[in-house]
Amino acid sequence: MEKQSTTPVSSNEDIVIRKTSKYHPSIWNDYFIHHTTTPALTEVSIRAEELKEQIKNLFRETSDILQIMNLIDAIQLLGLDYHFEKEIDAALSLISKHDAKNFELYETSLWFRLLRQHGFYVPPGS
């Protein structure tokens, strides 16, 4: 900060004096305004799209209900479920039709929680 000065600001009735400051110019200038896309950022975006496609392939290729439920759970825990809404909805429709009577405690609780989180009706004796 270089120096402080006071500037009078007038309103209809009173004069208010406010402090103003003059700051040194930024060392960055306008670099970020003119350089919004960098090669590294483009590479990251391409890699992210590749990984999203791999996850979509997992949904298509996996037929085991427990693996699909674990995949959905992991995606939700990572906070990435908004990228795969269509795939998750299709998988949950398949899961909701599956009989959970042969599941053990972990599988049953995961099945129940995933379906309830997404608004499916789950009968408490399944």
UniProtKB/TrEMBL annotation:
Record's keyword terms, sorted: Lyase, Magnesium
Gene Ontology molecular function terms on file: terpene synthase activity
Lineage top rank: taxon: Eukaryota
The keyword Magnesium appears for this protein: yes
Pfam families registered for this protein in UniProt: Terpene_synth
This protein's record includes keyword Magnesium: yes
InterPro entries: Terpene_synth_N, Terpene_synth_N_sf, Terpene_synthase-like, Terpenoid_cyclase/PrenylTrfase
SUPFAM superfamilies xref list: Terpenoid cyclases/Protein prenyltransferases
Domain Terpene synthase N-terminal stretches: 27-124
GO biological process: terpenoid biosynthetic process
UniProt protein name: Terpene synthase N-terminal domain-containing protein
Species lineage: Eukaryota, Viridiplantae, Streptophyta, Embryophyta, Tracheophyta
